[in-house]
Amino acid sequence: MEQDNLLPEPDRDYLAEKGYVFEIIPQNGVVHLILKEIGFSEAYNPKTADILIMVPTGYPNVPLDMFWTFPEIKYANGNVPVATEVRQQLHGKNWQRWSRHHPGWRPGLDNLRTFLTVILKEVQ
Predict the structure, then answer these.
(1) Are 45 and 73 in contact (CB under 8 A)?
(2) Helices 9-18 and 112-123: angle between axes, nearest 10 degrees
């Protein structure tokens, strides 16, 4: 399967519209979408990181859930953001998992755009 077809067309269009640099890695039936060098607000250190989103089989009817960052992100004061203590080895890197859940996922309405809006609202 061509990598361009691993995400729904609205998501591909959104990534292109926003000019994201990204990588798509198929992984055991799940698509790993890595957004490169996403800016974080002054409240965080470092100021840029890659964000990994796991796109499950059944998406967009199945919700996107959590995200991962590399390198590790802390607050500028050195504190660790809540629910980010878990690390996972993925693609040769030690990713920081942000346990963020979105129980109000609306199949047919929500997608990568709405999920990223929630993520970016927190970190930018």
Answers:
(1) yes
(2) 40
Residues 45, 74 contacting (CB under 8 angstroms): yes
Residue 67's nearest CA partner among 43, 40, 42, 107 is 40
- Cis peptide bond N-terminal to 103, omega within 30: no
Percent above pLDDT 90 for the chain: 89
Return the domain boundaries, the chain: 3-123
In sequence order, what are the residues at sequence separation of 6 or more whose Cβ sits closer than 8 angstroms to the Cβ of residue 71?
46, 49, 96
Query: Which regions of the chain does DSSP assign to beta strands (E)?
Result: 22-27, 30-39, 44-45, 48-55, 67-70, 74-75, 87-90, 93-98
pTM of the predicted protein model = 0.93
